[in-house]
Design goal:
heterotrimer, A mainly alpha (280), B alpha+beta (528), C mainly alpha (336), A: 280 residues, MetI-like fold, 74% helix, B: alpha+beta, D-Maltodextrin-Binding Protein, domain 2, Dipeptide-binding Protein, domain 3, 2 domains, 5-stranded mixed beta sheet, globular
């Protein structure tokens, strides 16, 4: 367990890991521990814009809902969305990347050209266009993000597979007459797993950020979803007097994404052979 | 060494900043330049679009035969000096004022008016919708200052609709006509009017910046204003908070009137600023699709009408920035019965009506949708308030954020029209026809105003009769009767009539509100 | 080198054509019909039908696409559905504002990021290294739109130290256009008052935008430095008695910057995307806020054009970066 001990030495990465655990804990158990479960979705017009207090820790929003409770519920939403998007992106990108990396010929060529097309525009711009045009809503925003994120996995896996294909180890397997499927799934896949895991971890944070931005711009989550980005957008008309309504959802984004990024960064250090060399 | 140099740079920069601040402050106190921030029309051609922003633009750069002034709005002669209508309501004759000039110096004569109406109808865009079905011909009358309109059908509100049509200068447009477009491509970013302010096309930036320069020879003269503004810069700032803060810092002198009340509090607290408060004619309404189950059941519609928290919304969220409007016609306009009660927030009554609907076999358990307009935060708030109250009586409401263009498209067909949607019906022209007439006459099915898909032969008859009837008192009776019926049948959920609140610098003098244009009339303003 | 250049350019072409197909299909398959937006609020169904015909929305998709590609190749992006003004004009007018903002952010990010990265590598695994790491990772974790709001709240609204919005105050004439970048244009015109005003306006947006890039550049510089520091020549130079500071800041840094250069090319795309959020909050009249406006009004021609223009710029920047990379490291050219 050398790798674990090494990881534990990395203070930042451990911090990231702890944040992720806490955030996941909140997502799972939070809904049962809400101070005001009735004020998550239901408005209470008489209690609009109460500043943070012992009763409402993060204050109330423009419809008198408890921001603390909404941030808690929003945690579950944010994680679910990011997890789904990253999972779909992996499900599309990884098989295509392995296939294109291992074979030659026109299908591989087509896959990589399509990947190039998607990578030719900043992901956000493309996702914005797709999310807007597929009809507003969380569903189309998630589809847009997954659709524009898989090429990153495809690219990474393609490069790794290409590298592996010419290694002695794979060539030996081919010589032994192992089937292509077997080689791909039993021998290639585990070897490209590390970069996938690193990318997925960082991708979780990145997707939470992008989803929030889409929600903020009005092409993501829809009311009354307690989505963090949407909450910031909804409260921005009342700034600066009602500073709390925009501040706390933003902090929630910051802390969650920070957790994933620190952890992903630490994983990369562990896995990236170049950096490992420099560490020894 | 480097640190000393950067220190030097810093101090010069600081000095320069201070200098620029001072000279900038001087610029602010110039009394002939006004910085305004209001949403501009997306296209500058007044015959192509007609909406709130266009009224703002038209009021300053174009003139019309008649126009509205004051509150309540009165129709007054403008480029025309008088009119006569034949007893059958089919022939309308307008006498033009003599000597009125376009901004290029040429005189406005009957031919120009004829050209303007012909252009409007030929382009057949937004504002033509009112005239296309009724206008038979427009021609020069007995002399060059007389215009004669012949209508296909008697149309009592005709005079009220005349202020929709800007009179444009054919001599300026002629050299810019391409492919038979009546100069529409050119006029979308230029002007050809006679109004008190002239567009500066060189500095025009769509949806960003419009500069207006005073037109000294405007026909109405400048005697009413000893110290008129020479240059108005309209700068559109999309973000509400940024826009309000820009006003509070003095970067701009006046902002538009679509603001959350909470922001108006900030403005009111700021020295040197004031907030205007005027009841306008802009009805906020939740339109229901009367043609689709369960909305085709009158008890279901009444249940929903009892389930909206009118008082809570108006007093709580809008902080009384609106007046309860129980029916489709603005309650400050004739035709709206003075004793109209409408619906109040009462969940017990809502439940009772819901049970009646259920007993009648209406699919009351279906999840229903309400579409909001994304850029209008208030539509989302109203939808969410509605959503949480409906949940209490067991109705599941889904909020769908949408935008104006797709909504206007969806409402053209009954299949694509939403269950419910939130919008305002503004005063395009001041006549009950603009509200109840175009909302509940089944002839208007397929337009966004007619998206309630309401069909009632009696109401159709009343509204059509009112359209033909020239006697004002009888028209009033017809509209009141129609109002009572649609309210009793809960055709839609009418929420409030808007109070316009606008943030203004106290330097601005002469501001006069009218529901048409909302007081954005630079001609009347001066600066101290 | 010429062959490398040609191949690199050729490689970019299919991607751009594919992009054209992708965006077009996406945008035209959409249910929302732009004809209604065009017709205006009070239009009748007949008016809408007439517009649909006039604009060719009733034609088969492939024919609309062929027409569109022809137009794009001749530099005609068509007129905005919303304002009926040429989209190309809107974009060329707004592009300099975004370029200026992005360049300023990039300059700040490299100016601060490279030294931070070097120091983090030199004091590897120290508390300084950890602090830099948490701060830079934090930079990547912060939502730019939120941070923009907070900074605006604190520095413009509350403290009143910096301007709130825009490139220059309302009513102040901009410097005569040479490059379209106000900072450079006011220098050219010798207008130092304008220069400071424009710089003050740029401070908050550029800083907000730079955060993500600052983090990336720091991390890449750190990684590159760590790798180079392991190499034999470093030990040799140290042994040969070169001053350590000189070894690190000149020899090692120069050798480590190859990776950082590549990163800057990729960052350009991220910066343009980030500009969407930042420009909206600070009311910066660039193509980011233009894109948001186009999305809000379902202006499909403008969305198409922005996506394409950003795609072309992105491709161009990456080609330029590859060329620089190839010049720095000739092995790269051979690989292609």
């Amino acid at each position: 367990m050398l790798i674990v001990r090494k990881f534990l030495r990395d203070v930042a990465a451990v911090l990231g890991f702890v944040i992720i655990c806490v955030v996941i804990g909140i997502a799972i158990f939070g809904p049962f521990l809400l101070p005001h479960p009735d004020l998550v979705f239901d408005s209470d017009i008489l209690r609009r814009f109460e500043p943070p207090s012992a009763e409402f820790w993060f204050g109330t929003d423009n419809l008198g809902r408890d921001i603390f409770s909404r941030v808690i519920i929003g945690t579950r939403g944010a994680l679910m969305v990011a997890l789904t998007v990253v999972a779909i992106a992996i499900a599309i990108g990884v098989p295509l990347g392995i296939y294109a990396g291992y074979t030659t010929g026109w299908p591989a060529e087509v896959i990589m050209r399509v990947t190039d097309v998607f990578l030719a525009v900043p992901q956000l711009i493309l996702a914005l266009a797709i999310a807007q045009l597929a009809g507003r809503g969380l569903g189309s925003a998630m589809a847009a993000l997954a659709l524009t994120y898989w090429p990153f996995f495809c690219r990474t896996v393609y490069a790794e597979t290409r590298r592996l294909r010419h290694t002695v180890f794979i060539e030996a397997l081919q010589g032994l007459g192992a089937s292509k499927t077997r080689i791909l799934f039993v021998h290639v896949l585990p070897n490209v797993a590390s970069p996938i895991i690193v990318r997925a971890t960082v991708g979780m944070g990145f997707t939470i950020l992008t989803t929030a931005l889409l929600g903020f711009l009005g092409v993501g989550a829809t009311p009354p979803n307690p989505d963090w980005g949407l909450a910031i957008a909804e409260s921005r008309e009342y700034l600066p007097d009602v500073w709390w309504a925009a501040t706390f959802p933003g902090l929630a984004i910051l802390i969650t994404v920070l957790g994933f990024n620190l952890f992903g960064d630490g994983l990369r250090d562990l896995i990236d052979p170049k950096l490992r060399r420099s560490r020894s | 060494m480097p640190s000393r140099r950067s220190l030097l740079i810093n101090s010069t920069a600081l000095a320069a900043t201070m200098v620029s601040r001072i000279s900038w402050a001087h610029g602010q106190t110039r009394t002939h330049e006004l910085n305004w921030s209001e949403g501009p029309p997306n296209i500058l051609d007044p015959h192509v679009i007609f909406d709130g922003p266009m009224v703002f633009y038209m009021l300053n750069t174009y003139d019309t035969l008649y126009r509205y002034e004051g509150n309540p709005p009165k129709i007054v002669p403008w480029l025309a000096s008088s009119y006569t209508a034949s007893p059958d309501g089919l022939t309308w004759t307008f006498k033009l004022r003599q000597g009125a000039k376009f901004q290029d110096g040429s005189e406005i004569v009957a031919e120009d008016v004829v050209y303007s109406f012909q252009r409007l109808v030929a382009l057949n865009r937004g504002p033509a919708a009112v005239f296309k079905p009724i206008l038979d011909s427009v021609s020069v009358g007995e002399d060059r200052y007389t215009v004669q309109f012949k209508l296909k059908v008697p149309y009592a509100p005709f005079l009220s609709t005349v202020p929709i049509v800007a009179i444009v200068n054919p001599r300026v447009i002629a050299p810019n006509v391409k492919n038979d477009d009546w100069g529409a491509a050119w006029l979308s970013a230029n002007s050809a009017g006679s109004g008190p302010y002239r567009l500066d096309p060189a500095t025009y930036r769509p949806m960003e910046a419009i500069d207006f320069h005073r037109f000294k020879e405007h026909f109405a003269g400048w005697g009413h204003n000893a110290n008129p503004v020479e240059l108005v810069r309209n700068r559109y700032i999309l973000e509400t908070t940024t826009r309000v803060s820009a006003l509070m810092r003095g970067d701009i002198d006046a902002i538009d009137h679509y603001l959350p009340v909470d922001q108006l509090d900030r403005i009111g607290r700021t020295a040197g600023l004031r907030v205007t408060n005027d009841e306008t004619m802009r009805v906020f309404v939740i339109t229901m699709h009367n043609g689709r189950a369960p909305f085709d059941n009158v008890h279901y519609r009444r249940a929903l009408s009892y389930a909206f928290n009118y008082k809570g919304f108006i007093d709580g969220i809008l902080k009384k920035g609106a007046v309860r409007n129980p029916g489709p016609i603005p309650q400050n306009l004739w035709g709206s019965p003075a004793d109209l009660k409408g619906y109040e927030f009462n969940l017990e009554k809502a439940k009772a009506e819901l049970e009646k609907a259920r007993a009648a076999g209406a699919p009351v358990d279906r999840e229903i949708e309400i579409h909001t307009q994304n850029q209008q935060a208030q539509t989302t708030q109203a939808a969410q308030v509605f959503q949480s109250d409906l949940r209490k009586i067991g109705i599941k409401l889904k909020v769908v954020p949408n935008l104006w263009p797709p909504l206007a498209a969806a409402t053209t067909k009954p299949e694509t029209s939403p269950d419910m949607w939130l919008h305002w019906v503004s005063a395009y022209f001041v006549d009950p026809e603009n509200w109840i007439g175009q909302m509940y006459d089944s002839a208007f099915h397929g337009t966004w105003k007619g998206s309630a898909w309401y069909k009632n032969a009696e109401v159709d008859g009343l509204l059509r009769e009112a359209r033909r009837e020239l006697d004002a008192e009888r028209r009033k009776g017809l509209y009141e009767k129609a109002s009572r019926i649609v309210v009793d049948e809960a055709a839609d959920i009418w929420i409030y009539n808007t109070i316009q609140m606008r943030g203004l610098s106290k330097r601005i003098q002469g501001f006069a509100f009218s529901p048409i244009g909302g007081g954005s009339e630079f001609r009347l303003l001066s600066l101290t | 080198m010429t062959r490398f250049l040609l191949r690199r350019l050729l490689l970019a072409l299919p991607a751009l054509l594919g992009l054209l197909v992708l965006t077009f299909v996406l945008l035209r398959v959409v249910p929302s019909d732009p004809s209604t937006a065009l017709a205006g609020e009070n239009a009748t169904p007949e008016q809408i039908a007439a517009i649909r015909k006039a604009y060719g929305f009733d034609q088969p998709l492939w024919r609309q696409f062929v027409v569109y590609v022809g137009q794009v190749l001749t530099g005609d992006f068509g007129n905005s559905i919303f304002t009926e003004q040429p989209v190309l004009g809107d974009i060329t007018r707004r592009l300099p504002a975004t370029v200026e903002l992005v360049l300023a952010a990039l300059l700040f990010a490299t100016g601060v990021g490279i030294p931070l990265g070097v120091l983090a590598a030199v004091y590897y695994n120290s508390s300084f290294d950890h602090a830099v790491r948490i701060v830079t990772v934090g930079g990547l974790a912060i939502a730019p739109f939120w941070f923009a709001i907070i900074l605006q709240l604190v520095f413009a609204m509350d403290l009143d130290w910096l301007p709130l919005r825009g490139r220059i105050p309302v009513g102040m004439p901009p410097p005569p256009t040479v490059t379209g970048l106000y900072l450079i244009d006011s220098l050219v015109a010798g207008r130092f008052d304008l220069l400071t005003t424009a710089a003050r306006h740029m401070l908050l947006p550029a800083f907000t935008l730079s955060l993500g890039s600052l983090a990336s550049i720091t991390r890449f510089t750190r990684a590159g430095m760590l790798e180079t520091l392991q190499k034999d020549f470093v030990a040799y130079e140290k042994a040969a008695g070169y001053p350590e500071r000189r070894v690190i800041w000149v020899y090692v840094l120069r050798n480590s910057l190859v990776a950082t250069t590549t990163q800057i090319g990729l960052l350009f795309g991220a910066l343009i995307a980030g500009a969407v959020a930042v420009e909206t909050i600070y009311d910066w009249p660039g193509i980011g806020s233009y894109a948001v406006q186009a999305i809000l009004t379902s202006d499909y021609k403008a969305i198409l054009a922005v996506t394409l223009v950003v795609g072309v710029i992105y491709a161009a920047v990456n080609i330029a970066v590859d060329i620089v990379h190839a010049l720095l490291d000739p092995r790269v050219a051979e690989q292609l």
